[in-house]
Each structure stands twice: as structure tokens, then as C-alpha cells.
Amino acid sequence: MLGRVHNTNIPEMTTHPFTFRKPLLALALSAASVLSLPTPSQAASPASFFHVSGFVRLYGFNKNYGAPTKPDQRSSALGEGLNITTDPFLGGFGLGLSVYNANAIETFPAGDKAHETTLMGAKSSLTTVGQAYVQYARDGALIRAGRQIINTPWMGARDSRMIPQTFQGVWASIAPMKGLQLMATRINAFKSRTSDGFTHDNLYYPNGYEDDELYGTTTVFPKKTVLPEASGTSVIGARYHSGPIHGEAWFYDYTDFARSTYLNGGYAFGKAHDAFAPYVDAQFMHQTGGSMFQKYKATLFGKGGAVDSTLWGLRGGVKFSGNNVSLAYNKLEDHANAFGGGSIVSPYGDDTAMYAAVMNIDLLAYGPGDATELAYSRSFLDHQLKLKVAALKFHTTYSGNPHAVYFDATYALSGKLKGLSIRERLAISNGASSSAYRSLVYNRLMLQYRF
């Protein structure tokens, strides 16, 4: 196993407690004053062998709970990511490196329950080499080995925190014909969004396994259980897109945790620029296996056993005059004698493949039941402003009947400030059976500059 990447000695930033928005404005103004300076990629010659890109990200989370037994939580951080890639050499070889860093703006005493730890963990600073790979690409084929970002429907970067989730292993893809892509990967180690190194675990392992700062875990194993290392994951998949038709098929083998088959596809009745363009989509997933859960007596929602989950979904909508209105439905079947009563197993936390899902408000979190989402989205000001609003309703077996509203707006600047954007995401949910989560206002605000 690769050694862990330890944090650099960045001085701890100590501040008095404060809310996030006022310091965000002050930092945004100071950041904007330097954004017009040439970036490394702008200063480099187009013929340069090395290419540099990245981001500077200022992020704030606020969670307000409607329960006296659950204190409100907050966190804020400033960080950056730097990507260095090369031009192809020796007929198609290439190299890539990505270094990520995050620093807490407000620090908390150890164990302070007001600290929201999923943004960057509990430490005051975090530095990691998230990508370091060699690849060979030629004639529509690619093979990449090393630390890397992998994006598939149920295993991906989940880049909605300070740093993305990355993996160590081999990725291969080929495009044998127009519109078709075949993909496969084998990963043996994993770095979460709050970890500084790669370990042989996943988000079902307890925080601290192999000294991994693994925040955002799902507690399923009995306390003090001694667990073996995770044996990684193998994935094969195919995507096809031709005219109005699109589809994909995936098989995941999360070794000892679950085997998963996922299908997704749809048809668009019209073209993107038509005045009226309806579309329909459907998805299906079935999971089995789970020897790890059985052997070590794991339970979720008080239910143990083998993995047996079945998810399906339908979505229909229409695009007209720049608007997009959709109605989506997901159903996660009850399997009373299975792990989690039929719950989805997602070892790396991915959930956005489901049609009815926003900001961790979904059937992965709530367990078996059904979800309905009515959504509206549109781009304004020549696509500088993107807006989405949605309403969701759930009926679940173990989490009550929650409902939620969601707002997502991104404004991207242009001209000399091109690359700078601000994004606001707000979810308000009510009705979950847990007393601590019956009411939750979850706000995420991000200022980002990409270069």
C-alpha cells in the first residue's frame, strides 16, 4: 500500500466564531483584485510541453437543525488545486499530477459538535497528491495507471467539497465506433474528500481506519470490530449516444461488499434547439453479494443480511424556449431480510445517478421507499447564470415521509474575470423520522476561480 501523504506545516488559522457570509464577501473582494493577473497557463507558450490548470476555491457550509438535541453546524475553508499534464510523447504517452490543499478559515476545539466536518475534515489544513499517473492514448484508446479521478455513475470524484475523491488503479477506454465508448477500471486504493492519503477502505469503514480521516462515513459495523482491508473494486461499462438515443450499462464488483448492475437510457423527441422538445429516461439497478456485511454482522436501519437491493426510476420532461421542466420518480424496493432492508450499497458515497436526488436528500440516505421530484432549470444571460429549483417528496420504510425544496444558482463572470464563479445551493428538508433530522436547512456557498 502506498504511504500516506502528510500535511505540510501550514500555520493554524485561529479566529473567533463567526457566520460565513461576511468573511466570504471580504475574501471575495480581495481575491477579485488579483484574479486579473496572468495565470501559469496564460503565461506559458502554446508549444510548451507542460500544461497547468487548476482552481482556487472558497467554500462555506451551514447546517441548521430544527431539534434542540442537534446543534447547528458550520465550516468554511479556502483552498486550491493545481493540475500539471504533459503533451503526448513517444507516440502517445503522457503524465499527470494534481496537488490539492485546503485550509480552515474558522477552527474549532477537538470534538466540537458545531464543526461541520464533511467539508475538509477536522484538521485545520489538508494537503494531498490526489493524482499522479502515466497514460497512453492513441487512435481512440486510452489506458491510465496510478492515482486518478474516475467518473462513472456510482463511482466518481464527488467534487462538491474542497477537494475531489480520487482512486489508485488502472483505467482503460476505447471507442470502437462512432457514439460508442467501452470502459473498464480496477482500483485497489481510495482517497476520500477529507483524507490526505490513499488507504484500502471505503465509506462503510469507521473514521480512523488505518489512520484515515474518513468523514461522511455510514456506520454499519459493530463498535471495535477488527476489519480487514478492502480489496478494491472492478468496473466495466459501455455508453452509447446516437441522435435522439442515449444509453449506458455498468457492472460494479465492490469486492466483498456488493455486485451491482446498472442500466440507464432515454430518448429525446426533438433537437436541443427545437421550440418544444420532450424527453424520457429510465434507469434500473440491482445489487447482490455483501459477504463483508454478513461476516462482521453489519446492520443498517437495524437490518442485517446479504445485499439485495432493487432500484428503478423514470423521468420525463420537456425543453422549451430555454426552459427545462421535468418530473422524476425513483423506487427502492423493500427486501426485509436483506442488509438495510434492501438499501443501496454505495461504498464511495455516490448518489447523483438517481433521478430524484439533491444534496444527499435521496433514497441512498433514507433507505427503501419511493421519491418524486419536480424540477425546473434554465440558463440566463447567455448562459452566465444557471438556475435550478426542485421540490421532492419521499415515502420510506425507515425514515418517515420527508419532503424538501432545493435551490441551485451559479453565476459565472466574463471578460477579465472569466473563470470566476459564485454558486449558492440551498436545501430545506422536513419530515424525516429521526428527531435530529426532522428539519434541516442546508446551505452551501462557493466562490471559485478556475484557470
UniProtKB/TrEMBL annotation:
A GO CC term attached to the entry: membrane
First and last residue of the signal peptide: 1-43
Keywords annotated in UniProt: Signal, Transport
Entry-linked Gene3D superfamilies: Porin
Entry protein name: Outer membrane porin
Family, similarity comment: Belongs to the outer membrane porin (Opr) (TC 1.B.25) family.
GO-annotated molecular function: porin activity
A Pfam family: OprD
The species this protein was found in: Thiomonas delicata
